[in-house]
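Researcher: Please predict.
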Amino acid sequence: MMTNKSIQRQRRARRGRSKVRSLEINRLTVYRSNKHIYAQIMDSKGSEVLASASTNETEVKQQNNGNIEAASKVGKLIAERAKTKGIESVAFDRSGYKYHGRVKALAEAAREEGLNF
């Protein structure tokens, strides 16, 4: 059973994605759980994942994967992987989460590594 909180987040995410879809560029999608954070770069149609990174990977994994430090590592990693694929600019899809904390840390780290959004 879905809680009211998750339904509201999905509604916000749907609204944000419809705006991003109209831009017709690749999108950087973030998913945040209590223990981990995940990032994917998807093509403009949303049918193919071009690059991904998460705190589940061995090169990023540490004692506490649900903190801001881990999120910024994932942001740097996703930006590096995007550059190797030739992706310079994306639209940021925060998936209905507020732009603060781990989501903000991931976005700012990706920007520092040269990803434009």
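Model: The beta strands are 27-32, 37-42, 49-54, 91-93.
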